[in-house]
Amino acid sequence: AGGVPLTVSVPIAGEEVTAQIWRLNVGRVPLYLLDSDRPENTSAARWIVSRLYVGSPQVRLAQYMLLVVGGARALEAMGLSAERLHLNEGHAAFAALELVRRDVADGGTVEDALARARERISFTTHTPVPAGNDTYPLAELEHAAGELATQAGLDSAALAALGRSDPQREEEPFGMTQFALRTSARANGVSRRHGEVAREMWQELWPGLALPDVPITHVTNGVHMPTWIGAPMLELLERHLGEGLLEVAEDPTRWAGIDAISDAELWAARGEQRARLVASVRERSVTERLARGDELDYALAAAAGFSPDALTIGFARRIATYKRLALLVSDREGALSLLRSERPIQIVLAGKAHPRDNEAKALLQALFELKTAPGVSARVVFLDDYDLTLGALLVQGCDVWVNVPRPPLEASGTSGMKSAINGGLQLSVLDGWWAEAYREGNGWALSGEVHEDLVAQDSRDGAELHRLLAEEVVPLFYERDGGELPRRWLEMMRASLRSLASDYNAQRMLREYRERVYQD
After folding, report:
1. DSSP alpha helix (H) spans, 23-122
2. One digit per residue, pLDDT tens: the chain, 520 residues?
3. Could you say which DSSP state residue 267 is in?
4. Gap between the Cα atoms of 491 and 513, Å rounded
5. Quick check: helix, strand or coil at residue 10?
6. Would you call 35 helix, strand, or coil by DSSP?
């Protein structure tokens, strides 16, 4: 008001940290952001918001405190009343402490305050990977959040018990996911299979319940189609399926008309989106390779080698070890043979490794060692700074989207959904969303079977990946009739759009959250 910023104060690790509130309008939705880079804060406090993936556990805990305690106080300061809080991952678990603190300050008992806070909170767990479910020694937790817990009427023992799978196991560290599950009324995973995995992971929190009765449901993720669908594909679909398609995308009857779209029109839309991606790859590959210190000949290779007519394969996501990017080159000679073939394939890789995931960083280094092999520089590109703009280009332009996580560690896998609504075909492990979405004829699938022998599993899946590429994917793409159209490929595109577009969008997802998670 009057140019004076609105701020809130958050107790973090023994000091009061001031956070400024920013508002960003995302379409019609206001997004509020918190910033501790304020002159009245200490240097350490100002650092809290400087980096997303930070290695220090103390800084991560400070980020959590700022996010949820500061977030709740920011809403209060702006006069916004939230009937329900929806927490995504354990990062936001401390929201319950702030709700309990307020209730206790108004004269409520801790037990009643916890019960009331629980009824207002819904919790979504997003990953079964252990590294994604943070745990902390009790001393670190008390250092960061001890003052807030005391104000909420919780002593050290009571706080620790809420964050342990077994409250009686004193040597167990404090788990953010366990705390969130214990302080929320409803919880869900983000795909059918992930719901099953989450119930098995956290059954210990409900020792008296059989596995099917563990109160963790699932709502499979969906993607916001207006954000991710390419303009050529959207124009084509609205012309044949009716204007306003995106407003009724959940209705499967609207997608039945996909069969009436001619092969020539469907292929032209795919070609235009592929060409846009290739043009960007040609430009970015030169500057990014030069910036990495590569020789000029290598830097220029993809600009000359990438073709708007070649089969384009995408693999882009956070580079985590369980994503198994190395399977692409598990058969080195087979991979090089595909790249050198007269039926060319070109591969676009993008992503970032977590600063603490040393295995993932080592994997990237090993892949880069292959860049000098004949045929690689002109047909394989790794793009830095994977962000929303690059992500959209990739999912719109790639013909095949590859996802080969180690089952059952994939929670959902929304990048594949974004590819599917653009006519891309999936080559994925039967894990996450693909385990429920795959039908014969709408893409390709690798086994989702869990294997104790990880080396054997990788060997099996790598061999199957390369077999599918060599024997099915590449031949199908280049099988052309006299009119130069890949008729059977186009049939798979139609099958994919018919079976996936109405189910894996945000409209269906939001409806299911209302029905399964937000209901009284």
Report:
1. 43-47, 57-65, 71-77, 95-105, 110-120
2. 456 789 999 999 889 999 999 999 988 889 999 999 999 999 999 999 888 778 788 899 999 999 989 999 999 999 998 889 999 988 999 999 999 999 999 998 999 999 999 999 999 998 888 777 889 999 999 999 989 999 999 999 999 999 999 999 989 999 999 999 999 999 999 999 999 999 999 999 999 999 999 999 999 999 999 999 999 999 999 999 999 999 999 999 999 899 999 999 999 999 999 999 999 999 999 998 899 888 899 899 999 999 999 999 998 877 777 888 888 877 878 888 888 888 989 999 887 666 566 666 666 666 666 677 777 888 889 888 778 889 999 999 999 999 999 999 999 999 999 999 999 999 999 999 999 999 999 999 999 999 989 999 999 999 999 999 999 999 999 998 877 899 999 999 999 999 999 999 999 999 999 999 998 6
3. H
4. 33
5. strand
6. strand
- Do 313 and 400 contact (CB within 8 A), yes or no? yes
Nearest to 117 by CA among 82, 142, 161, 158: 82
Report the candidate in 520, 509, 519 with the shortest Cα–Cα distance to residue 218.
509
Q: Which residues contact 11 (CB under 8 A, 6 or more apart)?
A: 17, 65, 69, 147, 148, 151
Tokens of 138: 């009790």
- For the CA atoms of 346, 431, 455, 440, the dihedral, rounded to the nearest 10 degrees, stands at -60
> Rounded to an integer, what distance in angstroms lies between the CA atom of residue 402 and that of residue 362?
21
pTM of the predicted model as reported, rounded to 2 decimal places: 0.91
The whole-angstrom separation of Cα 42 and Cα 210 is 50
Q: What is the dihedral of CA 301, 302, 303, 305, to 10 degrees?
A: 90
Tokens 């180690």 — which residue?
406
Query: How many Cα neighbours within 13 Å face the side chain of 272?
Result: 14
Within 8 A by CB and 6+ apart from 128, the residues are 194, 197, 198, 201, 408, 409, 411
How would DSSP label each residue in 339-375? HHSSS-EEEEEE----TT-HHHHHHHHHHHTTTTSTT
Quick one: tokens of 249? Answer: 């995308």
Residue 414's SS3 state is helix
Q: Is 241 exposed, middle or buried (0-12, 13-18, 19+ CB in 10 A)?
A: buried
Buried b (16+ CB within 10 A) or exposed e, 445-465: bbebeeeeeeeebbeebbebb
The rounded distance, in Å, linking the Cα atoms of 209 and 313 is: 45
Distance, in Å, from the CA atom of 477 to the CA atom of 487, rounded to the nearest integer, reads 9
**Cβ distance 72 to 93 under 8 Å?**
no
Q: How far apart are CA 282 and CA 423, in angstroms?
A: 22
| CB of 426 closer than 8 Å to CB of 403 | yes
